[in-house]
Amino acid sequence: MKRFLVVLALFGALWAFAGAAPARGPAPAGEIPVAALPREARVTLALIKADGPFPYARDGSVFGNREKILPAQRRGYYREFTVPTPGARGRGARRIVAGTGAAGDARTSGEYYYSDDHYNSFRRIHE
To answer: Do residues 96 and 125 make contact, with C-beta atoms less than 8 angstroms apart?
Structure first.
């Protein structure tokens, strides 16, 4: 229960922060600017960079890239994180997949992909 309250408080604080995402110019084709992400995705991105705590137990698990839509990398390179979907039952279809970069850390890699259709398509997040 205590962990849930901590996650809820952090989620609320990040929710307020995520509403002020700066615009950094137009994103190239196949990308999405941070400011164009749904608020829940901006909160999830902030949680990734803060190393949690995450509201779903599966957040941070290995994303296998079985669809081969993302650039090919070694197994374990990509991690998946849930973007809550208002009104959805369970986790919904929205995700952010983070590369772990050369340092092996999703928090600092700068490589983030957004899917709003449960991995059928991805757009790289343009920061």
So the answer is: yes
Phi–psi pair at 98, nearest 5 degrees: -115, 130
- The answer, yes or no, to whether residue 20 has pLDDT greater than 90, is no
pLDDT category at 29 given cuts 50, 70, 90 is: low
pTM of whole model > 0.85?
A: no
Instruction: Please report, rounded to a whole number, the percentage of residues in the chain having pLDDT higher than 90.
Output: 74
The first and second tokens of residue 89, run together, are 């039952």
The 3-class SS string of 97-127 reads EEECCCCCCCCCCCCEEEECCCCCCCEEEEC
Catalytic site residue from 31, 40, 67, 118 = 118
Specify whether 67 is catalytic: no
